[in-house]
Amino acid sequence: MKKLLASALAVAVLSGAVLPGATALAQTAASVEPIDGIAAIVDEDVILKTELDRAVNNILAQYAGRENQLPPRDVLQRQVLERLVLVKLQVARAQGTGVRVTDQEVEQAIAGIAQQNRVSPEQLRQQLAREGTPYTDFRNSIRDELLIQRLRQRFAQSRVSVSEAEVDAAMAAQANQGAQYHLAHILVALPEGATAEQIATAQKKVEGVKALIDKGEMDFSAAAVRYSDSPNALEGGDLGWRSVDEIPNAFASLMRNMSPGQVTDPIRGPSGFQLLKLVEVRDASQAGPNMVTQYQARHILIRTSDSVDDAKAKAQAQTLQARLMGGADFALLAQENSQDQSSAPKGGELGWFTRDEFGPEFGNAVAGLQPNQVSQPIRTQAGYHLIKLEATREADVGERNRRAQVQETIGRRKLEDEWNRFLREMRGEAFVDVRVGKTADAEATSAAPASNG
C-alpha cells in the first residue's frame, strides 16, 4: 500500500479533473472550449489548461523555498504536461484492453491511504479540501493509478520472464559482491532513428550539464530537475537502491569502481545520453532471518468479470459460506464451485505458502484464521475467496526466499526496460496536439550551456 500511496499521490499531484465528458470534449474541442482552455489533445481525450496549471502549481508548492532548483516555468510546464499525457495514454490503453477497477476497490485504496496517514477517510477528505484538492479529482487519480498498475501487471505477465539460469548467475554474482547501490541519473533523450544533428545536440547538452556539476555550479539533483528528460526528473533523478542484478551490466562495472558522490561521464544508451551518480553504497550480503511462518490452506474462488458483477459474485460466495457453516465439505464444494482452475481439482488445496504470496488481502485474511476456521468472503483483484486454514508451521526458507528475491529483482529490471520502451512506442503512436508551451522544447534544448571541453 505504501507503493500505491506514493504513486497515487504522484498522479494526484499531476492530475486535474477527469471530466465525464472528456472524450466528447476532445472531439468538439474547438467549438466547446476556447483554444487557451485546452493544454493538449491526447487521441480522444484532453488535458485542460486548468489541469496543467493546478499540476504545475502543486510542483511549485512542493519546492517552496527551493524554486531555484526548478527549471524555467515554461520548461517545467513541458515536463508536467508530458507526464499528464503519459497518464492519459496509459489509462486509455488499460480501459481499451479490458482492465477494470470497481468503486469498491477505489474506496479500499483510499481507506488504505488514510490508514497509512493515520487519519480516517473523512479526515483525509477534509485535509484535501484544506489543500485545495477537490475530492473527486483525488478519487479519479486513485482510479487512474489502479488502472495503470494493472496494465503494468498484465504487461509484465506477457512480456517479462526470468529463467533459472539467470537466477543462478545472479546469485553467484551476489556471493562475490554483496553491495547495493543508491543511484540517480540524468537523461538527455534521443528520438528513435535520431539524426546526426540530433545526436550532436544531445551530446553537447549532456556535456554542458556535466560541466555544471563538475564546477560545482549546480548539484546533481537540481540539474536533474532542470535538464533531465526522464520521467523521474522532478524527483531529482533518484533511482533508489539497486542490487547488482538490477543494474545493466555496462553500468554495474562502472559502479564497482566509483566512490559515493561520483558522477560518470556521459553514457550513450538506447534512450539517449545518461549521467549516473553513485549516491551511496551499502552491504547487502547479510541474509535476514530464515524462519518464516507458512500456511496450509484451501480456497474457493468466485471470479468477477464484465459479465459477473461484484454483487452477484459476493452473493454466490455468501451462499457457499452458508453451506459450509451448515456442515458441507470444503474440498467437495471447491471441486464443484471454485473458479480457480489450478486448485479446484485438488479441492482448493494451495499447499504451503507465506503470508504475502497471494497478495496482501488474501494474506491478511489467512493470518487472522485459526486452524479449520473458514473466512468470510474476501475480496481481491481476482474476485471473492472463501479460505479454510488447515495448519501453520515455522519453516527455514532462506534459500527459497533469496532465489525469489533475486528473481523478482531481475524481473523488475527487465520490466523497467520493457515498460519504458512500451511507453515510448505508445507516445510515438499517439496523436498529441500540444496547445501550450510551444517554446518549451527550444528552451529545454538550449538551457544547458555548451561544454567547454
Features:
Chitinase A, domain 3; alpha+beta; Triger factor/SurA peptide-binding fold; 453 residues; 4-stranded antiparallel β-sheet; 3 domains
What order do the helices and strands follow? HHHEEHHHHHHEHHEHEEEHHEHEEHEH
Per CATH, the superfamily of the largest domain is: Porin chaperone SurA, peptide-binding domain
Number of helices: 17
Mean pLDDT: 81
| Protein structure class | alpha+beta
Please compute the radius of gyration using only Cα atoms.
25 Å
Number of strands: 11
CATH topology of the largest domain: Triger factor/SurA peptide-binding fold
Oligomer: single chain
What is the CATH C level class of the largest domain, in words? Mainly Alpha
Named at the architecture level, the CATH assignment of the largest domain is Orthogonal Bundle
Strand content: 15-25%
Low-confidence stretches: 1-36, 439-449
How much helicity do the residues have?
40-55%
